[in-house]
Design a protein that fits this description.
CATH class of the largest domain: Alpha Beta
Bound molecules: adenosine monophosphate, magnesium ion
Number of helices: 11
Number of strands: 15
Mean pLDDT: 92
Order of helices and strands: EHEEHEHHEHEHEHEEEHEHEEHEHE
Low-confidence stretches: 356-372
Helix content: 25-40%
């Protein structure tokens, strides 16, 4: 299949440029498009054959349901059968934006879109290209991230082209995305509402608007447990390289990682380190990549997937990564890093001097939020 790439300047474009892509969507074909979170791979959410093509193109397991994207609240009627009061407040406050709500589905939504569940995930993205595309297509658009299943989500069109060129009809290149991590998924069919996936809207921000939300379900489910959000059981967001997280005081993390780097070098493996800009100078790996600043977690979120892809491009065999405090967007950052880390996590005990006291880290934000 020939994939058409349409380049659009996100700051200044004529919506008519999106017309061929909108027509493709309405005709049951696949179009990748930018949102504020990551690039999405869209299909008509109410057309089971079109939705089936998404699973095929991505190699996505068919029991992992999709998020339906809308451009107008009017579209909700065809998607959900009820909007509880708290959901309405959240829509008013956070839409368009990186918040996905799980609601009871309307009859017309096919099983292919919800993986057979009686609920449906829905959101309105905060990206003008996405909104114009949905509006022009005249359909609600089911869209998971536009990557091969399991790989890091695409935050630039080049990532989509690398993964899906030749497998889908059209890619709209609208520059790199801003948030860089997927939307928060919030289950509104339980009380209190439950966060199934942390993302662009933090738990703290949600609670400030609707009171208590349950974040305990943000588990990295394994084995035979049945997750409430089917997507949680899969390995996700992973670079091809092996990846190990190291958590603890900054000095100690650097010491440990540098030791592991030496060990792996001795085995002729190309080593990588994912570090914050504040701590990058501490490392001596072959490749050190910095998604952003520790004291500005939004910058880390925005570039973390790009870094994971860059390690693979550079032929790195093993990546060692710092960890980040699990507050605000940090909860989503660590959720993705844990799923990406095939090699698990090394938790270092606090640095102590010979009197048993703690040596103070040289860095203001020693650790690290990974719960023991
Ligand atoms: P992705 O499309 O890859 O960004 O992932 C969408 C996420 O939303 C996955 O984790 C899905 O499991 C989750 N999701 C979608 N629909 C539902 C639903 N009806 N109930 C629970 N989780 C859902
Ligand atoms: Mg995805």
């Amino acid at each position: 299949m020939r994939t058409t790439v349409i380049r659009v300047n996100p700051d200044d474009f004529d919506p008519e440029k999106l017309r061929p892509a909108a027509r493709a969507l309405a005709g049951g074909r696949l179009v990748a498009f930018p949102t504020e979170t990551v690039y999405g791979l869209g299909a008509d959410a109410l057309n089971p054959e079109a939705v089936g093509r998404i699973y095929e193109a991505k190699g996505r397991p068919s029991d992992n349901p999709l998020i339906v994207h809308i451009s107008d609240l009017e579209q909700l009627k065809a998607i959900v059968s009820a909007v509880p009061e708290k959901a309405r407040i959240l829509m008013e406050t956070f839409w368009p934006g990186p918040l996905t709500l799980i609601l009871p589905k309307s009859e017309g939504v096919p099983d292919e879109t919800t993986a057979g569940l009686s609920t449906v995930a829905v959101r309105m993205p905060a990206n003008k290209i996405a909104l114009d595309l949905i509006r022009l297509s005249g359909v609600a658009v089911a869209a998971p991230s536009a990557n091969i299943s399991g790989a890091p989500s695409p935050t630039c069109a080049s990532h989509v082209i690398a993964d899906l060129s030749g497998r889908i009809d059209c890619i709209i290149d609208g520059g790199c995305t801003q948030v860089g991590l997927e939307s928060t998924v919030l289950d509104m069919t339980v009380d209190p509402p439950a966060v199934l996936r942390p993302g662009g809207v933090s738990v703290e921000t949600l609670e400030a608007v609707i009171g208590q939300v349950n974040a305990d379900k943000v588990s990295e489910v394994s084995g035979n447990e049945v997750p409430k959000s089917p997507g949680m059981k899969y390995r996700h967001y992973s670079p091809k390289a092996e990846m190990v997280l190291v958590s603890g005081d900054s000095d100690r993390v650097a010491e440990t990682i540098n030791r592991l780097v030496e060990k792996n070098r001795a085995k002729n493996r190309k080593t990588g380190v994912l570090a914050s800009s504040e701590t990058r100078a501490l490392y001596n790996a072959d490749v050190v990549l910095c998604p952003g600043f520790r004291n500005s977690p939004e910058t880390i979120a925005a570039s973390i997937y790009r870094c994971l892809r860059d390690f693979d491009q550079l032929g790195v065999d093993i990546i060692f990564s710092e960890t980040f405090p699990e507050e605000g967007i940090g909860l989503a950052i660590m959720n993705r890093l844990r799923k990406a880390a095939s090699g698990g996590i090394i938790r270092l005990p606090p640095y102590s001097n010979k009197n048993g006291g703690h040596k103070k880290s040289r860095f203001s934000n020693p650790d690290e939020g990974v719960k023991p």
